[in-house]
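To illustrate the input format used throughout this study, we show a single complete record. The first block contains the structure-token representation of the backbone; no residue identities are included at this stage. The design step must infer an amino acid for every position from geometry alone.
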């Protein structure tokens, strides 16, 4: 598949999501959700067409892009995406429009890198094609067009993975550093660099010089990638713990903040995290404002959200077990694949990463977030679907009728297909009208 086809396919999928958003947003009136919804200026033509893409957490990102980090709870939302919106708005004049344009660009680039990565790993054009098709209409599709970080994060992650396994580590470090400025789990991407470098060391001549070289190299790479998170935490510390200067905040926004009990950066007393030995705000904000913590979300009233997350949990487990089953039984737990002496790219780090994301989603996070969390962070589920479909077809020349026949005849693939399509459609409808969805 050439570059033009990839761009056309990815742009077409975003057009479809846009049309569903536009139609559903104007069919029924928005639900009055109990969520962050600061006052805004009068509606423009942009809001008429794109308003459905600015709901839920998008409000936070757009608010930060316009006003910066003036509320303490905003610290849960990392700065790269809102900062990018802020810069582009100097040209477009509209924050929502800037956020949607950026995500369209990021999504197209994500698709290109996912295709390149899939070709690199599997050396198979059909698997790469099927992988891209799964990604284009994944069950979290609406979040890749809305003003969320999914498109930016997937672009940086897939790019970093491609450069890691193609041997261009410098570009991988840059991509993973930026992913750490986009979402907190960007730090986990360092694991891929660690895996490939340790595997190379095990396969090479094990001398003291090589050992110290790999330790120094990985230490430096980790320091660079983690510095994104550390710098952001220091930035928040400077704003919320050291700054007492009162800047002008509009009367409507100030009134909204006071009515809802939001803590403004100059409010006293300062929060507890300011006085800790390591004054990082992230865990404090997640616990206090978002109730994120071990088993914090395991409540009877959250059963509907666990049901909503059940398909992606099942698909993740199925993907992990599916690839593990194909591995050499003696090598599955053989130093987690590090002892594998082949030159091919092995899937162990992807399996480990997805397993960690899945456990984090179930036991620590708001479980319904797992759909967009996993779909934007790890390509394994797309690869498992693509590989399974490839095994069923066994044909070099693809025809739509043949592919459709195989989809409808295999129960697992059929379920996955309807899951992806239904969540893309229903999810966009719900999200656009301020109704709960992941």
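Output of the design step:
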């Amino acid at each position: 598949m050439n570059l033009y086809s990839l761009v056309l396919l990815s742009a077409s999928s975003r057009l479809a999501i846009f049309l569903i958003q536009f139609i559903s947003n104007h069919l029924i009136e928005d639900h009055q959700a109990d969520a962050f919804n600061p006052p805004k200026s009068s509606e423009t033509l942009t809001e008429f067409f794109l308003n459905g893409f600015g709901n839920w957490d998008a409000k936070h990102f757009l608010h930060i892009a316009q006003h910066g980090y003036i509320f303490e709870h905003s610290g849960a939302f990392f700065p790269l995406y809102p900062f990018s919106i802020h810069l582009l708005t100097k040209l477009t004049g509209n924050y929502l429009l800037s956020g949607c344009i950026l995500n369209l660009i990021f999504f197209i680039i994500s698709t290109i890198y996912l295709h390149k990565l899939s070709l690199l790993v599997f050396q198979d054009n059909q698997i790469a094609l099927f992988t891209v098709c799964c990604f284009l209409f994944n069950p979290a599709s609406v979040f890749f067009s809305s003003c969320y970080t999914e498109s930016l994060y997937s672009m940086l992650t897939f790019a970093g993975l491609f450069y890691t396994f193609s041997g261009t580590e410098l570009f991988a470090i840059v991509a993973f550093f930026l992913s750490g400025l986009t979402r907190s789990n960007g730090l986990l991407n360092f694991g891929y660099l660690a895996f490939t470098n340790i595997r190379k060391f095990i396969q090479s001549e094990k001398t003291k010089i090589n050992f110290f070289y790999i330790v120094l190299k990985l230490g430096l790479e980790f320091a660079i990638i983690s510095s994104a998170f550390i710098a952001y935490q220091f930035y928040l510390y400077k704003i919320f713990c050291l700054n007492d200067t009162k800047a002008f905040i509009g009367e409507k926004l100030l009134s909204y903040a006071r009515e809802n009990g939001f803590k403004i950066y100059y409010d006293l007393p300062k929060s507890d995290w300011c006085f800790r030995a390591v004054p990082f705000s992230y865990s404090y904000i997640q616990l206090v404002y978002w109730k994120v913590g071990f088993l914090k979300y395991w409540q009877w009233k959250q059963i509907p959200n666990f049901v909503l997350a059940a398909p992606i949990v099942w698909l993740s487990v199925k993907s992990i077990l599916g690839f593990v089953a194909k591995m050499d039984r003696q090598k599955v737990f053989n130093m987690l694949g590090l002892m594998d002496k082949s030159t091919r790219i092995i899937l162990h780090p992807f399996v480990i990463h997805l397993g960690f994301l899945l456990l984090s989603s179930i036991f620590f996070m708001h479980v319904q977030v797992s759909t967009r969390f996993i779909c934007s962070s790890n390509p394994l589920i797309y690869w498992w679907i693509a590989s399974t479909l490839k095994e069923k077809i066994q044909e070099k020349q693809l025809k739509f009728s043949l592919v459709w026949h195989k989809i409808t005849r295999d129960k697992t693939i059929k379920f996955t297909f309807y899951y992806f399509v239904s969540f893309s459609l229903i999810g966009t409808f719900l999200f656009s009208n301020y109704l709960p969805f992941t």
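Structural context for interpreting the output: The radius of gyration is 22 Å. The first helix runs from residue 3 to 27.
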